[in-house]
Design a protein that fits this description.
Four copies of one chain form a homotetramer. By secondary structure, chain A is of the alpha/beta class. Chain A has helices spanning about 10-20, 35-40, 50-55, 70-75, 100-110, 125-130, 140-150, 165-195, 200-205, 215, 240-255, 265-280, and strands at about 1-5, 25-30, 45, 60-65, 90-95, 115-120, 120, 135, 155-160. The first copy, chain A, has twelve helices and nine strands. A six-stranded parallel β-sheet of chain A has the order 3-2-1-4-5-6, with helices on both faces. The longest helix of chain A is centred in the middle third of the chain and has 29 residues, at about 165-195. Chains in contact: A-B, A-C, A-D, B-C, B-D, C-D. Chains A, B, C, D: GO terms for molecular function: 3-hydroxyisobutyrate dehydrogenase activity; NAD binding; NADP binding.
Amino acid sequence: MHIGFLGLGNMGGPMARNLLKAGHQLTVFDLSAAAVSGLVEAGAKEATSPAAVAQADVDVIITMLPAAPHVKQVYLGEDGLLAHVSAGVLLIDSSTIDPLSAREVASAAAHNGNPMLDAPVSGGTGGAAAGTLTFMVGGSEADFQTAQPILATMGKNIVHCGGSGNGQVAKVANNLLLGISMIGAAEAMSLGVALGMEPEVLAGVINSSSGRCWSSEIYNPFPGVVETSPASRGYSGGFGTDLMLKDLGLASEAAKQVRQPVILGALAQQLYQAFSLQGHGGLDFSAIIKLYRQEDQA
Amino acid sequence: MHIGFLGLGNMGGPMARNLLKAGHQLTVFDLSAAAVSGLVEAGAKEATSPAAVAQADVDVIITMLPAAPHVKQVYLGEDGLLAHVSAGVLLIDSSTIDPLSAREVASAAAHNGNPMLDAPVSGGTGGAAAGTLTFMVGGSEADFQTAQPILATMGKNIVHCGGSGNGQVAKVANNLLLGISMIGAAEAMSLGVALGMEPEVLAGVINSSSGRCWSSEIYNPFPGVVETSPASRGYSGGFGTDLMLKDLGLASEAAKQVRQPVILGALAQQLYQAFSLQGHGGLDFSAIIKLYRQEDQA
Amino acid sequence: MHIGFLGLGNMGGPMARNLLKAGHQLTVFDLSAAAVSGLVEAGAKEATSPAAVAQADVDVIITMLPAAPHVKQVYLGEDGLLAHVSAGVLLIDSSTIDPLSAREVASAAAHNGNPMLDAPVSGGTGGAAAGTLTFMVGGSEADFQTAQPILATMGKNIVHCGGSGNGQVAKVANNLLLGISMIGAAEAMSLGVALGMEPEVLAGVINSSSGRCWSSEIYNPFPGVVETSPASRGYSGGFGTDLMLKDLGLASEAAKQVRQPVILGALAQQLYQAFSLQGHGGLDFSAIIKLYRQEDQA
Amino acid sequence: MHIGFLGLGNMGGPMARNLLKAGHQLTVFDLSAAAVSGLVEAGAKEATSPAAVAQADVDVIITMLPAAPHVKQVYLGEDGLLAHVSAGVLLIDSSTIDPLSAREVASAAAHNGNPMLDAPVSGGTGGAAAGTLTFMVGGSEADFQTAQPILATMGKNIVHCGGSGNGQVAKVANNLLLGISMIGAAEAMSLGVALGMEPEVLAGVINSSSGRCWSSEIYNPFPGVVETSPASRGYSGGFGTDLMLKDLGLASEAAKQVRQPVILGALAQQLYQAFSLQGHGGLDFSAIIKLYRQEDQA
């Protein structure tokens, strides 16, 4: 297949490489010449604008961009994709943006004669490189069936979440709960240890009981409890506090738009914000446990 | 074995019956004559005061009482257990109280020459009747080994959590995280559905992703998602909001005593309190999702 | 003076009338024909588009619009003010919008050769009719001096808050604190009364002590304490919960843009949101005290 | 008058001195010999136990103790006041404790034939030395009239708050609102400054508008805005974070006892707790603004 790919950053770059490896023909665009030349060396063809990608006789276009304004610009701008792409070309946006913006762009695409899917990912740069991302996909069943084999070359868990925008909804809702339960795990672990329990024993009890969650089991924020978690390597790597902050911002913004309360979610967002203000935005988000421990503690 | 048992309420009553069924000899005490006579019919011997239980030549005494003041009265009062029990008799308190009170009583017991364990349970009245409770046990390894077979006649999961008071610590920390993650699950499910997703699909995505927790998987608060959860039967049965409120009260009190913040935990406690004030204290705690849904919604 | 006025709603309508009463010549525009004809009867001249207002040889243009997208459309759109207004005409936006949007429009105006002020108001529809509004004004000192006498025909308290956007900043910061202290007053009054104090006595102590605030003194949320407050007339009139919600939304959005935490502010926003979801968005915002009182209480 | 005084710490010491200066005869008790000898030098007579004070033929007894357990011990203990004082002697407790404990002790005093008032103070060690404290008094009108002239030698604002315990209720409710509005002021000031306003200008707008509160006007947490506030001298002196934490702990505890939510109050308590954990418990409570500012900021 001939695929257009826009956005070759930390996530998009390795995703595009996996498409090449799977034998697809690629025409790519990015504002960074370095990012483009890396892909060209790997076998992709360069395009000098979104419009040029749209006019390159592609079957599918995939975008991986930082935020909603970039997505709107690339799809809806004068020199953008919709103004130049042929009807029928399938559009897949893997950016993480708010669901209402996703639906707005998909609606414009539909008016243009183009099927469109929102397909945000989880799994981080490691998953992008290894081709093990999870894709949460919103759009019609037929379009999902078309996209599934393409996405499967970049990820291993491809989930259809329902109609347009629902990929974004699923991601935002999941990460809302994740951001809350991580702070909950941090509070429970810190309290239990302050009251005299060994962290490993406490985690063992919780993980076999009703407090059990991904944040206590797989990604426990207390140092030393889970060997492979960021907590056991100084909170480096993993999913940065500022990325969690972005996703909680999307959640509270989407909640505001539909007049839905997210009480613990809004508080969690502010705690990560306060933590980021203290200079810790680059640490894995499980480092939020530092708010609950004295500075000289592990 | 000859076991003294004090506190024959909704939990203690069925627990005592399971001890009888296992062949133990029981001497029981409760302020309610009806509760006592039920056990006497089942084969227990009645004592007319805590002191009388202590003097009945028992090997072990188990208590199951409503709150810390009752525990202190029964163990430390003038007519209480410690004033009359023989040295060496093992004391097991299965009440849910704050860890510091548990340690205070255990320390007094030690001065009296009595080994003591704190052994709060989870599993509810259903687990008490079926003999499938979880016991979280604090105290010495040797005393735990002695108690283990006795507790095993009333529960199926007997966990040693470390030294004195740690059974209470484990329960309080687990339920703190549970109280938080349930509200988190309620917010995530409500938001996702308000944004257009099917609740079953959303729960499926979350439960295979990083938002996964006991509250989303086993006990999902959205009606209809988990057939066996209280949400699917009008929030009846289960673990009442006012019981969760009691446990979060213990958690925030214990946190205050050791000067440990529990930020989301304190907010969760207040939300359950506000919900209880609206008249819903008797509903299962997952009914907290009603704060996030319009009244005419399911 | 010849003044253009766009936006003749509940606030803009009476403000424009006060300008007419003060002897100014008015050219007005609104999407609602009824709103326009009312002003025309009072002596204003009608314009059929923002562009037509801009081309009507006005000295000053004042806008009073619902939200930032409307402001951007009216000023920056193809048929908007900046595309057609003569250089040098002073632009005054009295809409309440986020500070960054205000600065973006003012910057575009400056590039167009037009001085611009942001001048949001407080005082409600009553103040608009009576000409007693407070104007919080952002922009240069010279432009503020020019605008001052014009604004003084619509308000009695005209405050210069510093450079462009600072009028919006002042309003957003004030209302953030107001939204928080009202809930604080509701909690303190409800708690004191639940613990046995007479509400009037409690308010008296607080108002002569360090808990004193506008929300306890002038606008006490407990019924009967302040005779003239909405609480004493069933929470009708006043400043609606949904308007407070809008302003807290602007505050948390502006905070997100500058990466500043607003922890109590975000929680306050969510509590008003939950209260609105329960169907109370039209009540005065002091009705939030209902979250803290049983339904059958006054 | 002959007055017994127990508790000669930072507050009680200077209060007792003011009673001596006013010409009263004093019999004093404290566990600290140094504290006692200071008062003896100033003219007081020493007693060696609470019982000895009670038996010293006093007309009135005043207590100023750290917390409820001390109050209960001194009044209700075997060697305590009630066991030895003559009927009719007026008892005044100026300690800050929870209202329910205050009522429990007053009820025991009444059974003993002793009228009792709870009379917690505000005004700090400065007010204690200067004799300018505020007394919030709970008890009967007649007893209040008796106590008024005595309290007036130690304070200048003596407020009758209603029946027994209501002095404590008033203090707890006032400080709950104070603790909340201070954080609100910190958020509003930090946000406004981050968005580009001068702190003095912002405070000026707020203090002439609906955000106005004691925390913004008299005690503004932003450095340099109010010359006499702790913020303008490095947050030294004033009302320590750990004292605010104690009072919010009393508020949330009292709220729990009457099943009343204090949502912002509980969050405020946790934020002061987290701030204290970071090592700032000794700073004035307005230093909480540091949570909202980068470390290198003023």
